[in-house]
Automatic annotation (TrEMBL):
InterPro entries according to UniProt: 6-hairpin_glycosidase_sf, 6hp_glycosidase-like_sf, Glycoside_hydrolase_63, MGH1-like_GH
The protein, known as: Mannosylglycerate hydrolase MGH1-like glycoside hydrolase domain-containing protein
Family: Belongs to the glycosyl hydrolase 63 family.
Gene Ontology biological process terms in this record: oligosaccharide metabolic process; protein N-linked glycosylation
Keyword Signal assigned: no
One Pfam family it belongs to: MGH1-like_GH
Naturally occurring in which organism (per UniProt): Tranquillimonas rosea
Highest rank taxon of the organism: Bacteria
Domain Mannosylglycerate hydrolase MGH1-like glycoside hydrolase: 30-400
Keyword field contains rRNA-binding: no
Keywords, in A-Z order: Glycosidase, Hydrolase
Length: 409
């Protein structure tokens, strides 16, 4: 296939996964609207259908809660193919949704969509919603100055070793029987294990039992970990939101202050032993034991740190394709098991956005070429083995198609 053929195939994936105003990540495995997947879908649409790009974001924010939270899944229509569905989350919202959020990339991508394709009035209408969501992150997820997650699914990097310390303290033994659906769609050896799922469900059951009361979840919930990736994403997203505010004639003071607070909190996730920013269990103080691509997202936020960069450079050099989700030198590295080692084009794209802003064109070029090679060889899969390039997970994947169009091609 030529790159022109791939462009056409990527557009066909986006339009094929369009369910009318929102895009599913991939048919079968993920049949609903996922939060950060949709923001990337919008970026992809902006390369050929700007109106549809803004609609994607508008539909995402139609699921925003009164608290400002934008849920990680919006269940616009029933589908038996995914577990856990709305009957398990029981959030009582309209439209039905999950009770946690996901990485707040929407402002970063909305700014780039606007720069590429215009749409000032659509952006103006979204602005207060973006601001409310960022405020929710500040009020309900920033602890000791850094952004935390209350469930690994909230991080978007589900079974990453980052979450092992917190997961160890979650009791999954009482969740009762349930039927997973994911392992019927893709290779089970590449998915999180049963013990992971038992714990994921225990966290959902806790949230449901307290009516998704955030104060209770933060104080007494089974899991609370600082997430370097979301901390860095939120620093960048708040700065981008401030830039959007400037363009719209709004006051940028709040998002600028939130970005500065997060930057001030960074020493709290610096792991001296690993010489890197790391996930940290806020209940026990324990750091994760290996360096993940969450740390590499410091580049998205423009955080410069020489020790950290040396580590990241070595990690990158240990693989052939892109930034791996976990350090190959770590005993927890598994090159095909989801977020425990594979490279994710979508994370590479975010890192590249930061490299580009910093004028680091040689590294951005390398990252783009390595990511593009994976797609040219393997197609638009969900993620890839970073060592031999094997395509893994779901096929015809929306966010991989989107970043091909918007960045990698
Ligand atoms: C994966 O997460 C879902 C749960 O949200 C799952 O495994 O069932 C993650 O890769 C997440 O980052 C992504 O948004 C989602 C849909 O692509 O799949």
């Amino acid at each position: 296939m030529t790159d022109d053929d791939l462009d056409a195939a990527a557009r066909a994936i986006l339009t094929g996964n369009d369910r009318g105003g929102y895009t599913i990540p991939t048919a079968g495995l993920y049949p609903f609207q996922w939060n950060w997947d949709s923001a990337f879908a919008a970026w992809g649409f902006s390369t050929f259908d700007p109106d549809r790009a803004w609609t994607e974001l508008e539909t995402l924010f139609s699921g925003q809660w009164g608290t400002g939270m934008v849920p990680h899944i919006i269940f616009h229509r029933d589908d038996e193919g995914y577990f856990p569905g709305p009957d398990v989350w029981r959030t009582g919202t309209t439209p039905p949704s999950s009770g946690i959020s996901q990485p707040p990339v929407a402002a970063i991508l909305a700014r780039m969509i606007h720069a590429r394709a215009g749409g000032t009035e659509r952006l103006r209408a979204l602005y207060p919603r973006l601001l409310a969501w960022h405020r929710w992150w500040r009020d309900w997820r920033c602890v000791e100055g850094v952004a935390c997650v209350t469930h690994p699914w909230e991080s978007g990097r589900d079974n990453c070793p980052d979450w092992d310390p917190g997961m160890a303290n979650v009791d999954g033994s009482q969740v009762g029987p349930y039927q997973r659906r994911d392992t019927g769609h893709v290779d089970a050896s590449m998915r999180p294990g049963k013990e992971d799922y038992d714990r994921y469900l225990a966290m959902v059951q806790f949230g449901r039992a307290c009516g998704w009361d955030q104060a209770t979840i933060l104080k007494d919930g089974p899991f609370l970990m600082a997430d370097p990736a979301i901390t860095f994403i939120l620093i960048r997203a708040n700065r981008d939101l401030a830039a959007i505010a400037g363009e719209l004639g709004e006051d940028p003071a709040e998002p600028l202050a939130w970005a500065a607070e997060l930057e001030d909190g960074l020493p709290g996730i610096w792991n001296d032993d690993l010489q890197a920013y790391c996930a940290r269990d806020m209940q026990t103080g324990t750091f994760a034991r290996s360096i993940s691509s969450g740390a590499a997202l410091g580049l998205l936020a423009g955080i410069e740190n020489r020790a950290m960069e040396e580590k990241l450079g070595a990690i990158w050099d240990r693989v052939r394709y892109g930034i791996p989700s976990n350090d190959p030198a770590s005993d927890s590295f598994d090159p095909r098991r989801y977020w425990r080692g594979p490279t994710w084009p979508v994370v590479n794209a975010l890192i590249a956005v930061g490299l580009n802003s910093a004028g680091r064109t040689a590294e951005e070029h390398r990252l783009r070429e390595e990511t593009a090679a994976l797609i040219r060889q393997g197609g638009f899969f969900e993620y890839f083995d970073p060592i031999d390039g094997t395509a893994c997970g779901g096929d015809r994947f929306t966010w991989t198609a989107a970043i091909w169009l918007a960045w990698a091609s």
